[in-house]
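Good morning,

Attaching, inline, the backbone tokens for the sequence recovery test we're adding to the shared suite. The designed sequence is right after.
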């Protein structure tokens, strides 16, 4: 389960999406995330599905590798669907004591599940095709206008990229510690909720110690190299927009127009939608 989380990992390849400017990928991901809330018909979801599937194929990242990350959000997905099904008012289909399963609740649960899946896949696709260094430069360049109101843009971009970079490292560390504790007789699966929480202590304590040690080592290494970001720092590979980036922007804008117009105006409905 822990190794199934793909957010923060980078998959090296030579696809057109890998070669795009990180600012283009950040903007495209943000626009895609917003777009999934702009429609509510089956045609809109079909257009979004085709667009996302096309991006996955172009990226050359294995489909199995991308969908593996969905295992990590299965419980969140399940809880969200159950809450929507049981607590959304509307036309009752089945009554279970004080709870009612409504037609509107099932429709809302399906929509929220699809949207959550698309958000995770879209975000994972961006991190899988962008290195942490590119992500830092892209964030810093995109947020540069905030410098005028004295927002520490470089520091924010650096913290976000380091946090993203540490996710797979800490997950691997967690997996190692868990296996070591299981070999020593620790039980993380049996017992009630309180016992499970208590059993997590031997896992969390060494994990936090390891995380602080890694953070301290990284800070010391940056200081030893006289690292100083922000104003006056030059780039080995400065970001520049190319023809491919302009084509990517045009494609994303065309997708948004298409999904809004078709998703809102074409009256095609299935029961759950």
């Amino acid at each position: 389960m822990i190794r199934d989380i793909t957010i923060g990992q980078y998959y090296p390849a030579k696809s057109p999406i890998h070669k795009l400017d990180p600012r283009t990928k950040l903007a495209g991901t943000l626009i895609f995330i917003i777009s999934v809330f702009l429609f509510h018909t089956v045609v809109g979801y079909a257009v979004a599905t085709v667009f996302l599937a096309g991006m996955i194929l172009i990226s050359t990242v294995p489909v199995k590798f991308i969908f593996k990350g969905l295992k990590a959000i299965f419980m969140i997905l399940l809880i969200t669907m159950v809450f929507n099904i049981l607590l959304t008012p509307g036309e009752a289909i089945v009554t279970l004591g004080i709870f009612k399963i409504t037609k509107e609740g099932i429709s809302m649960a399906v929509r929220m599940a699809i949207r959550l899946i698309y958000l995770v896949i879209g975000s994972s696709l961006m991190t899988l095709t962008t290195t942490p260094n590119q992500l830092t430069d892209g964030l810093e360049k995109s947020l540069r206008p905030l410098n005028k109101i004295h927002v520490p843009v470089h520091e924010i971009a650096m913290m976000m990229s380091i946090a993203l970079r540490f996710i797979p490292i800490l997950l691997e560390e967690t997996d190692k510690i868990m296996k070591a504790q299981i070999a020593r007789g620790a039980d993380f699966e049996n017992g009630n909720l309180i016992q499970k929480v208590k059993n997590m202590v031997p896992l969390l304590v060494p994990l936090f110690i390891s995380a602080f040690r890694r953070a301290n080592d990284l800070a010391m290494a940056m200081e030893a190299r006289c690292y100083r970001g922000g104003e006056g720092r030059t780039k080995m590979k400065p970001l520049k927009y190319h023809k491919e980036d302009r084509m990517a922007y045009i494609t994303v804008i065309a997708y948004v127009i298409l999904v809004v117009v078709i998703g809102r105006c074409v009256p095609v409905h299935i029961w759950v939608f």
